[in-house]
Write a structure and sequence with these properties.
Helices cover 58% and strands 11% of the residues. The protein is an alpha+beta fold. The protein folds into three domains: 110 residues, 2-Layer Sandwich (Alpha-Beta Plaits), CATH 3.30.70.1320; 178 residues, Multidrug efflux transporter AcrB transmembrane domain (Multidrug efflux transporter AcrB transmembrane fold, Up-down Bundle), CATH 1.20.1640.10; 101 residues, no CATH class. A four-stranded antiparallel β-sheet has the order 2-3-1-4, with helices on both faces. Strands 9-10-6-11 form a four-stranded antiparallel β-sheet. Helix 7 packs antiparallel against helix 8, helix 15 runs antiparallel to helix 16 and helix 17 runs antiparallel to helix 18. It is elongated.
C-alpha cells in the first residue's frame, strides 16, 4: 500500500521478456539488438503497460552477451490485468521469433489468474460419470447425482461471483469453491440416493422411501456438511483477508450443496418414482441380497466381509493402522510452505520457459526481486542516502562486472532508484537464490534486521516488499496459524459430535483419527511434492515448497 501511494506505477504487476541470441551471435550484434528494440517498442504499445525498460538501458545483458532481459511494468495489479493485455504482450515478440531468437515472456503477470475450465476438468467430470454409472448400474441414477451436484455448483458459484461486486476475490477462491462444491455435491447426493435405491430394492413405496432416505441419510449429510463448513470457515483464524474470503466462499458452496441434497433431490426422487429401483438380477439387487445376508452373519457385501476381518483381531488392526499412519506422517515436520510461482508452471508454458531461461542466463534471483521502499529522505541528501543503503545491502562494486565487496549474503546486486518527489526511493535487491529457496527467506529476514540501523543512519523509513517478500510473509503467517487453525477446527468439530452422538468417546476417537489422517496426508505431500519421492511414477514435474493454501 505504501509503494502504491508513493509510486502507483511501481506497485503494478511486472512481466519479463527474455531474449537469447542464435548460436554464434550475441544480443549486442547490431541486427539482433535492432530486433530486441523493435520488440520493446511493440511491447510498450500493449494495453495496460505503463513502461518497458530496454535491456540495453538497464544493462540487463548476460555476461556472455547471448541473453538480454527486458522488464515490463503494468499500470495495474495482477488481479486487474485483462487477458487481452497478456496476449498482446506475447504477440509483441513475433519479430524476434521470426529473426531466429529464442524468446519467452514470463514474470508475475503470468500464471493462474482465475478459474480456467479446460480438457482436464471435462475429463474429470467424464470419469465421475463413468464411476457413478458403474456404481449404480443406471444412467438415470448417475445423471440425477451429477445434475444435483452441477445445480449446487451453479448456485454456489453464482452467489460467490456476485459478492465480487462488494469484496475482492482472489483467483483461487472460485477455483476452490468449484472443486469442493463438485466433490461434496456428488458425495452428499450419493448418501441419500444410495439409501433410496436400497429401500426400493426391498420393496418400499417410492414416496415413502424418498422421505425415509432424506430423513436418515439426510441427517448424515447435514452433519457432514457442517463439519466441512467449520473447517473451511476456520481459515479466518489465519487473519489473511484473501484466505478468509476463500474459505468462507467455499463453505458457502458446501452449504448450498447440502441444501440442494435436502430439497431438490427428494423432489427429483418423487418424479423418478420406481424407475430408480434396481432391476432384478442387477448388481444393485445383488448388493441388497448381500446386505440381507449380512444380518445373519454369513456372506454379505465386500464391505461387510472386510469389517468382520478387521474386527476379528481389533488390537492387531489398530496397531497396524497406527503404525502405517505414523510412518506416513514422519516427513510432515519438514513441511515448507510457499505461494506458487512460475517455477511450478507446466514445463511447456511460456512463463515456465521464461523462468528457466532467466535462471540459466542471469541466475534464479531475477525471477524474484525484492523491493526496499525508502521514505522520508531529505531531498538534499537523498541520492547519497539511497546509495548508502544500496551499498549496505548489495556491497561496493569491485570494478569487475557483477562482483561486489561486502553487503548481505545471497545478494547478487542492489539497484537504487530515486523517485521524482525526491524524498522517496526504491532499492531493487536481486537475490542469488530463487524465490522459493530458503536462502531467499533468510535474506528477507536479514534485510528487515538491517533496516533499523539504516534508518538511524539515513533518517528515512525502510520497508521490505515486492511479490517475493509478500509471498514469504503469507507463507510464514500460514505456517504459524496451522496449530491455532487445527485447535479451532478440532474443538468445534468435537462440540458438534458431542451434540450429535451425546458421547465423549466417539468425538475423541474422531478427533484422534482426524489428526492422524491429516499428519499422514501432510507427510505424503512432503514426500512426493517436496522431496520428489515417486515423482516420476506420479508425474510430478517439479518439486519444492508446498503451496500454502
Amino acid at each position: 500500500d505504501q509503494l502504491d501511494a508513493a509510486s502507483p506505477g511501481a506497485a503494478g504487476v511486472g512481466a519479463q521478456i527474455v531474449f537469447v541470441a542464435p548460436d554464434g551471435q550475441t544480443v549486442l550484434d547490431p541486427a539482433v539488438a535492432g530486433v530486441v528494440e523493435q520488440v520493446v517498442a511493440e511491447a510498450e504499445r500493449a494495453p495496460q503497460v505503463a513502461a518497458v525498460v530496454s535491456p540495453f538501458d538497464s544493462q540487463a545483458v548476460s555476461p556472455d552477451g547471448r541473453a538480454a532481459l527486458a522488464t515490463v511494468q503494468y499500470a495495474v495489479p495482477r488481479e486487474g490485468l485483462e487477458a487481452t493485455s497478456l496476449d498482446a504482450l506475447q504477440a509483441s515478440t513475433a519479430a524476434a521469433e521470426e529473426a531466429g531468437l529464442q524468446v519467452a515472456v514470463g514474470g508475475n503477470a503470468f500464471g493462474t489468474t482465475g478459474v480456467t475450465i479446460g480438457a482436464t476438468e471435462f475429463i474429470g467430470v467424464a470419469v465421475a460419470v463413468l464411476v457413478l454409472v458403474l456404481t449404480f448400474g443406471s444412467l438415470l441414477a448417475a445423471g440425477m447425482n451429477l445434475l444435483t451436484a452441477v445445480v449446487g455448483i451453479g448456485v454456489g458459484m453464482g452467489a460467490l461471483l456476485l459478492t465480487s461486486n462488494v469484496i475482492t476475490l482472489s483467483s483461487s477462491a472460485p477455483t476452490l469453491a468449484l472443486m469442493i462444491g463438485l466433490a461434496v455435491g456428488i458425495d452428499y447426493t450419493l448418501f441419500i440416493l444410495s439409501r433410496h435405491r436400497t429401500q426400493l430394492a426391498a420393496g418400499m413405496d417410492p414416496e415413502e422411501s424418498a422421505a425415509r432416505a432424506t430423513g436418515t441419510a439426510g441427517s448424515a449429510v447435514v452433519f457432514a456438511g457442517l463439519t466441512v463448513v467449520i473447517a473451511l470457515s476456520g481459515l479466518a483464524v489465519v487473519g489473511i483477508p484473501f484466505l478468509t474470503v476463500m474459505g468462507v466462499g467455499a463453505a458457502g458452496t458446501v452449504l448450498v450443496a447440502v441444501l440442494v441434497a435436502l430439497t431438490l433431490l427428494p423432489a427429483l426422487l418423487g418424479f423418478a418414482g420406481s424407475r430408480l429401483a434396481p432391476k432384478p438380477g442387477s448388481r444393485a439387487a445383488r448388493r441388497e441380497l448381500a446386505d440381507a445376508q449380512e444380518s445373519t452373519g454369513t456372506g454379505g457385501s465386500m464391505g461387510a466381509r472386510w469389517t468382520r476381518l478387521v474386527t476379528r483381531r481389533p488390537l492387531l488392526t489398530v496397531v497396524a493402522v497406527l503404525a502405517g499412519l505414523v510412518v506416513l506422517a514422519l516427513p510432515a515436520p519438514q513441511l515448507q510452505l510457499a505461494l506458487p510461482d512460475n517455477s511450478t508452471a507446466a514445463p511447456d508454458s511460456p512463463e515456465r520457459r521464461a523462468y528457466d531461461l532467466i535462471s540459466e542466463n542471469f541466475g534464479p534471483g531475477l525471477n524474484g526481486p525484492l523491493v526496499v521502499l525508502v521514505e522520508g529522505l531529505d531531498p538534499g541528501t537523498a541520492e547519497q542516502s539511497v546509495g548508502t543503503i544500496a551499498v549496505a545491502v548489495g556491497g561496493t562494486p569491485t570494478g569487475t562486472p557483477g562482483e561486489f565487496e561486502g553487503g548481505l549474503d545471497d545478494v547478487a546486486f542492489a539497484q537504487p532508484t530515486l523517485l521524482p518527489d525526491g524524498s522517496t526511493a526504491i532499492v531493487t535487491v536481486i537475490p542469488e537464490s530463487g524465490p522459493q529457496e530458503e536462502a531467499t527467506n533468510e535474506l528477507v529476514a536479514d534485510l528487515r534486521a538491517l533496516a533499523p540501523d539504516l534508518e538511524e543512519e539515513t533518517g528515512a523509513d525502510l520497508a521490505v516488499t515486492g511479490q517475493t517478500a509478500v509471498a514469504i510473509d503469507v507463507s510464514d503467517r500460514l505456517g504459524d496459524a496451522l496449530l491455532p487453525f487445527a485447535i479451532v477446527v478440532v474443538g468445534l468439530a468435537l462440540v458438534l459430535l458431542l451434540l450429535v452422538f451425546r458421547s465423549i468417546l466417539v468425538p475423541i476417537k474422531a478427533a484422534v483419527g482426524f489428526l492422524l489422517s491429516v499428519g499422514a496426508s501432510f507427510g505424503a505431500v512432503v514426500a512426493v511434492f517436496q522431496r520428489g519421492w515417486f515423482g516420476d511414477l506420479l508425474g510430478v514435474s517439479a518439486t519444492g515448497p508446498v503451496i500454502s493454501f
